[in-house]
């Protein structure tokens, strides 16, 4: 069995129906989904390679004393009525076709609906169980069309079927999935073919600053447990996938409540030390999980098809 197939099987074993329901109910995931959409919608397409510096994103956003850090759809997302006036260079407009790769239950996908009337929101994932919940979300929307497909884009037996997606999308987004993907270089190369000329690829993932300095252990399910390197992502988007206007940077930091396992596999050593020393605020979540308040960094890697 190939390493890629082992990773797929390991992920499918984790992402079952019970986990999907629990995932949807997590405050951390709901907060992050909202912020992922916010910063994609507000991306400066007029200056795509001018990114925030580490100093500009050092302070975590939000108020951890409030539910969801104080963020709501109304106060975090751009106003759909004035969106194109406020962001005239955005590619998200009526008629836009968006692919959410590794879309999961569609928590991020649905936030784009008010901005792409007359277009399409397509979800793609390896898990039919998670797409059941995606399809439930899709029932809320008549415009834009919201639909899903079950695919492993590197499955050799499905390449003929996958040709239907080539050159079809104005934007392909992928949020917090790359650290689960074994061969993300080849996945990125494939996703680039789904873009129309001029279309944009957004990869959003957890960022561990330590990974730039040292190696990080991996498991079969979580392939890049410490995060993804900026240079590696830029090389993947530019040299391997052939995209232009490529850039990667920490887009923001925010407060989230996470369990011990997440912290020990995704966060920097300073945070892990605080966990081990009992220095992190602690609570019992509504689902019974013990969670700790941490600052999480998010990296955005972006590229455009010629």
Describe the structure.
The chain is 31% helix and 23% strand. It is α/β, with parallel strands linked by helices and 306 residues long. The protein has a single domain (3-258, 297-305), classed as 3-Layer(aba) Sandwich (Rossmann fold), CATH 3.40.50. Helix 8 (184-193) crosses helix 9. The longest helix is centred in the first third of the chain and has 15 residues, at 27-41. The radius of gyration is 18 Å and the shape is globular.
Summarize this entry quickly.
The chain is of the alpha/beta class. It is 31% helix and 23% strand.
Layout of helices and strands, plus pairs?
Blueprint: H1 3-14, H2 17-25, H3 27-41, H4 73-76, H5 83-86, E1 97-101, E2 120-125, H6 128-138, E3 145-150, H7 159-162, E4 169-175, H8 184-193, E5 195-207, H9 230-240, E6 244-258, H10 260-266, H11 269-276, E7 282-284, E8 290-304
Parallel strand pairs: 1-2, 1-4, 2-3, 4-5
Antiparallel strand pairs: 5-8, 6-8, 7-8
Which short descriptors sum up this protein?
single chain, alpha/beta, Rossmann fold, 8-stranded mixed sheet, 11 helices, 8 strands, transferase activity, Methyltransferase domain-containing protein, transferase, SAM-dependent_MTases_sf
